[in-house]
């Protein structure tokens, strides 16, 4: 019993702190054996590729760590004159954009329904397309009171987010303009 107590005291971190003179636990005694054995997962990368964050138009530099042709980590590039190694929360989460799983099922709640049901992605896309077409048809304005040509709809609008890159914004602007929408905006301008 006495040996067991001595063994427990020997392994106790406080006893180690007192013996080494690290009374506040700020030196070597603050790290456990497990902590000292930890290695950064980016050290296992086969290569590091420089890239630019795809979200807003700032152009923050990124270092993409690749192992076996798969992205294992994305971090800020300290050599970037724009971001100097810093990334916003969205840029820091870029890895999920690359490695995230695409949804194949959609949760849908019917009008006046109280529960969600799963429907297929194709069915959901068809429902959205049908509603856009119906809204455009029902809210289309061909001419105003003075007879001036309008060719527009005020029945729907688009507000893009910072997750959209320039190319996606360009395509969305073209789509909504072709549909006749006037209210087309992006959060970066608001």
Task: Provide structural commentary.
With 190 residues, the protein is an alpha+beta fold. The chain contains 7 helices and 9 strands, in the order H-H-H-E-E-E-H-H-E-E-H-E-E-E-H-E. Strands 1-2-3 form a 3-stranded antiparallel sheet. Strands 4-5 form a two-stranded antiparallel ribbon.
Structural class, judged by helices and strands? alpha+beta
The largest sheet is: 3 strands, antiparallel
Number of strands: 9
The strand line-up of the biggest sheet is 1-2-3
Q: Give the SSE string.
A: HHHEEEHHEEHEEEHE
- How far the N terminus sits from the C terminus, by CA atoms, comes to 71 Å
Q: Which bin fits the share of residues in helices? A: 25-40%
Radius of gyration: 28 Å
User: How large a portion of the residues is in β-strands, by DSSP E?
Assistant: 15-25%
The oligomeric state of the chains shown is single chain
Nearest-integer average pLDDT:
86
